[in-house]
Specification:
10 strands, Nucleotidyltransferase, domain 5, binds 5'-O-[(R)-(carboxyoxy)(hydroxy)phosphoryl]adenosine, five-stranded mixed sheet, alpha/beta, 2 domains, binds zinc ion
Length: 347
């Protein structure tokens, strides 16, 4: 039996989970998100302090729920990056203390690859080769994956704003509550006409298209939405919030789905695994399902609770690293706010 404890504190969620022999035993999350609505963005210092307060209670709750004692834990996996430096440091410090006290190895795991690894807990073993699309508040990346514990190639990513970041910024422009992503999704679905306004897709034509087949650029789109709203305001016209949201969402989801499926065909992979907080987006899920079916590609996306940040994703990646025989991280490892997406574990 191999039991791995996973700890995630890269942003505002304190997540602790236990995976035993590839099976999720418990996954407990505490969040400080409610504290940021009035600021319109995460305040790193508040997030770090919240992790400090939540760490021990969240760990205790996960152990109790899994009915596992600390002495039964064989290895500890913890997010080492990418993420906020203070938040990461709280999780890594806790994991180091546990590693030292229990005499068990520690694995400084990559948060982005964790967003993909969690899918195995839900949808079963990965195929030998797949393309990963990770879309979150901080990342939009396309990865060619032969082995998530050691053979990952970054095909492309955002050259400016990540998808979730663009949604949160446009949410603010449209006067929606923070974080805007989920609200844009909801108003678009319930009241929006996605064909009413066509916003530009980034890197859409000519030289840019050829040079960046798997990259994303969403900041021009965000500016286009801002200009559109400003124009209406200057003319004293009503702002059709739901139609703007739906048109904006369509531009992003069109690009994400098209480029990730193109990437699958380019490398000969017949499976796309999707993860990250933004993969909760309902239009992205619908477009991927529709377009992948036409191209004979299988899409795997975990349920929404495993798309946003959680401990299960780190326990899942940790379990893969342990069973693959990958060397653990040294006890004096540092955190890395910009951890390379091709590096599954901190050396
Ligand atoms: O992966 P995640 O929980 O945290 C990061 O690692 O960044 O992703 C959070 C991001 C936020 O930008 C949030 O607005 C976005 O995911 N998000 C959504 C939806 N749910 C969460 N964006 C669009 N549609 C949604 N339904
Ligand atoms: Zn994340």
């Amino acid at each position: 039996m191999t039991t791995v404890l996973g700890i995630e504190t890269s942003c505002d969620e304190t997540g602790v989970a236990l995976v035993r022999d590839g099976e999720l035993l418990a996954d407990v999350t505490a969040t400080s998100m409610d504290e940021y609505a009035r600021f319109g963005g995460i305040i790193p210092e508040i997030a770090s302090r919240a992790h400090l307060e939540s760490m021990v209670p969240t760990l205790s709750a996960a152990l109790e729920k899994a009915n596992v004692s600390l002495s039964e834990v064989d290895a500890i996996a913890v997010t080492a990056g990418p993420g906020l430096i203070g938040s990461l440091t709280v999780g890594v410090s806790a994991a180091k203390a546990l590693s030292l006290a229990l005499g068990k190895p520690i694995y400084g795991a990559n948060h982005i690859l964790g967003h993909l690894a969690v899918d195995e807990l839900v949808d079963g073993p990965f195929p030998e080769h797949f393309v990963g699309l990770v879309v979150s508040g901080g990342h939009s990346s396309i990865l060619d994956v032969h082995d998530i514990t050691g053979d990952v190639h970054e095909m492309g990513g955002t050259i400016d704003d990540a998808a979730g970041e663009a949604f949160d910024k446009v949410g603010r422009i449209l006067g929606l509550p923070y974080p805007g992503g989920v609200h844009i999704d909801r108003v678009s679905r319930e009241e929006g006409d996605r064909t009413a306004i066509r916003f530009p897709r980034g890197l859409e034509g000519g030289k840019n298209k050829a040079k960046h087949p798997y990259d994303f650029s969403f900041s021009g789109l965000k500016t286009a939405v801002a200009r559109y709203v400003e124009g209406l305001e200057t003319r004293g016209e009503d702002i059709p919030v739901a139609n703007i949201a739906a048109g904006f969402q369509e531009a992003i989801d069109d690009t994400l789905s098209e480029k990730s499926l193109n990437a699958c065909e380019a490398v000969g992979a017949d499976t796309l695994v999707v993860g990250g907080g933004f993969s909760a987006n309902s239009r992205l899920r619908a477009l991927l399902a529709e377009r992948a079916a036409k191209r004979g590609i299988t899409v795997r996306i975990p349920p929404i609770r495993y798309c946003t940040d959680n401990g299960a994703m780190i326990a899942a990646l940790g379990y893969k690293l342990v069973t693959a025989g990958v060397a653990p991280s040294p006890l004096d490892m540092t955190v890395d706010t910009n951890m390379d997406l091709e590096q599954p574990v901190m050396a």
